[in-house]
């Protein structure tokens, strides 16, 4: 217990000190805040999984991941003269991710329905001895490609969700709650989370279909 207290105290001190670092540039502060928050979250998660030792490891990993997110945000900010231009660009960027996800999920829903029918029929034929394992394996191979594609998009959306959530957290500190940029970005981030959840549900269904084809 003492170890996790030490880990989280250090991490929390980092976070507490960050707002007072007036000499930091905006980019440096963004990176450092990401590391500090990442350390806290990573420490808590690590302790839940592996106790005191897990907390130390989790804090280190979390800090590294948080720094990477902060670094990504800082890099994106470099291309814009003002925070408003930056937020406008990120809102538009998130909208594009949502459009891609919506289109993919719509097609995935149709594919899942079709694959459900095909796999059920194929499995029934196999159980009756009308087809051999090769037929099931061939279907499973084609299905695996779709599973892989879904996983790639899922990872991409998840990473972008983390970045956009961090942007929201950062800019909420200096902008009013009813700020138009914050409101618009919150809407797109909420949509992105919903679309990601839908994609994950579709991926789960694909995995279940694949299990049906296993022998």
Structural class: mainly alpha
Average pLDDT, to the nearest integer?
Answer: 78
**How far is the first residue's CA from the last residue's CA?**
47 Å
- The helix-strand sequence is HHHHH
Give the gist of this structure:
This protein has 215 residues and is mainly α.
What's the topology here?
Blueprint: H1 2-17, H2 26-77, H3 83-127, H4 133-172, H5 180-212
Helix pairs in contact: 1-2, 2-4, 3-4, 3-5, 4-5
Describe the structure.
With 215 residues, this protein is mostly helical. The protein has helices at residues 2-17, 26-77, 83-127, 133-172, 180-212. Helix 2 crosses helix 4 (133-172) and helix 3 (83-127) runs parallel beside helix 5. It is elongated.
Could you list some keywords that capture this structure?
215 residues, mainly alpha, disordered N terminus
């Amino acid at each position: 217990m003492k170890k996790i207290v030490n880990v989280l105290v250090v991490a929390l001190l980092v976070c507490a000190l960050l707002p007072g670092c007036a000499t930091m540039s905006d980019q440096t502060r963004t990176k450092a805040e990401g590391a500090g928050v990442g350390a806290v979250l990573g420490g808590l998660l690590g302790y839940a999984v592996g106790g005191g030792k897990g907390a130390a490891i989790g804090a280190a990993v979390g800090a590294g991941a948080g720094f990477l997110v902060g670094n990504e945000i800082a890099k994106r900010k470099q291309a814009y003269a003002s925070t408003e231009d930056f937020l406008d660009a990120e809102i538009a960027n998130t909208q594009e991710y949502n459009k891609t996800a919506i289109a993919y999920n719509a097609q995935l829903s149709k594919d899942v329905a079709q694959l459900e029918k095909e796999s059920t029929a194929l499995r029934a034929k196999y159980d009756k001895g009308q087809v051999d394992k090769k037929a099931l394996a061939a279907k499973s191979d084609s299905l695996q490609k779709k599973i892989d594609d879904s996983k790639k998009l899922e990872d991409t959306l998840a990473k972008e969700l983390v970045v956009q959530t961090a942007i929201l957290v950062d800019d909420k500190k200096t902008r009013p709650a009813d700020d138009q940029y914050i409101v618009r970005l919150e809407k797109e981030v909420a949509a992105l989370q919903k679309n990601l959840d839908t994609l994950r549900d579709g991926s789960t269904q694909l995995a279940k279909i694949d299990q049906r084809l296993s022998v």
